[in-house]
Amino acid sequence: MIREGRDFTFGGSYDGGMVYPVPKLVIEDGKPVAVQLDLAEYEALLERLEDQEDLEAIRAMTDADWETISWEDYQAGASGDVPG
After folding, report:
1. CA-to-CA separations, 49 to 5, 20, 42, 45, in angstroms, rounded
2. What is the C-alpha to C-alpha distance for residues 43 and 37, in angstroms, rounded to an integer?
3. From start to end of the chain, where are the E strands?
4. How many helices (H) and strands (E) does the chain have?
5. Contacts of 24 (CB under 8 A, 6+ apart)
C-alpha cells in the first residue's frame, strides 16, 4: 500500500517558484517501510548529504593541529626552494 505523506515538512513545499512533490510512504503490515520520492528530490537530498559530509571533513581538518604554509611557500617548495 502506498500513501501520500502529507505531514512531511520537505514535501509539497514551495521554494522560490519551485513546488516539490509530496513523498509517498510504502506501508506493509500497517507500518511504514519505505519512502517513494521524486528523482529530483532524491538527488537534492543526496547533494545536501554530500555537502554536509564535506563540511564535517573540513571542520575536522581545521580542528586538527596541523602545520600550515602559505600559498607562496607552497609554490616555492614546488620549485625546490622550501623556506625554513
Report:
1. 21, 18, 11, 6
2. 10
3. 2-4, 14-15, 18-19, 24-28, 31-36
4. 2, 5
5. 2, 3, 4, 5, 35, 36
What pLDDT, in 10s, does the model give residues 39-82?
988 999 999 999 999 999 988 888 877 777 889 988 888 655 55
- CA distance linking residue 38 with residue 56, whole number of Å: 27
Q: Using CA atoms, how far apart are residues 77 and 30, in angstroms rounded to an integer?
A: 65
Distance separating alpha carbons of residues 52 and 57, to the nearest angstrom: 9
C-alpha cell at 29: 503490515
Cα(52)–Cα(18) distance, integer angstroms = 23
Copy the grid coordinates of residue 49: 548529504
